[in-house]
Amino acid sequence: MKNDCRKSVFDPRVSMAENCGISLKSIVGKTEAIVRDRMGGQAAGHGMDHVLRVLASARAIQAEAGGDLEIIELAALLHDVGDAKLHDGVERSAEFAREILGSLGASDELIAHVAHIVDNISFRKTESAEPLSLEGQVVQDADRLDALGAIGIVRTIEYGAAFGQPFYSSYGDTKTDVGHFHEKLFKLKSLMNTDAGRRMAKDREAFKRSFLDQFLRECS
């Protein structure tokens, strides 16, 4: 391990951050700055605004469900930093999380925990994902909440517009955002891990269903 902070006594048994007197809160702040820089130009419902909403929801869930707050904050910030939809179908978030946290001197244990969360919370891996820690369950719930409610509707429309997918088709012969509601988004409430997540998801799903009912009435 390289002594980047030039301490006269450097303990190789602990992280660079601990050797240099860097707090986890500092690592969280620096991680947010890096993620802002990398994701500032992204849209389609997966930009920095999404990341910050997931961070806020994760903090709210953690206040009730518990878990290590700094691990939760780091995983929330990094969960979409290498999203497959924005990297030619290749999921790179865990890779980028390791790179970023390593550059900040985080311990191997912290890096492994955060990378494991980031690598196992997506809906795509529902069947193949490895079991999540409590911290991972909190972040997963927060991420899924952002696909529901009013925000979830807007994100779905943004994504569809960015990739040429119509919101609705009366012909039923093309992939649509409304179809995505039924194929994925209305399944999320039943997949929540925490009581807080389930409660929030119930309210947001009810709003989304109400919107869709009204939309389809106006289309008939």
TrEMBL record:
<keyword id="KW-0378">Hydrolase</keyword>
<dbReference type="InterPro" id="IPR006674">
    <property type="entry name" value="HD_domain"/>
</dbReference>
<feature type="domain" description="HD">
    <location>
        <begin position="47"/>
        <end position="148"/>
    </location>
</feature>
<dbReference type="GO" id="GO:0016787">
    <property type="term" value="F:hydrolase activity"/>
</dbReference>
<dbReference type="InterPro" id="IPR003607">
    <property type="entry name" value="HD/PDEase_dom"/>
</dbReference>
<dbReference type="Pfam" id="PF01966">
    <property type="entry name" value="HD"/>
</dbReference>
<protein>
    <submittedName>
        <fullName>Hydrolase</fullName>
    </submittedName>
</protein>
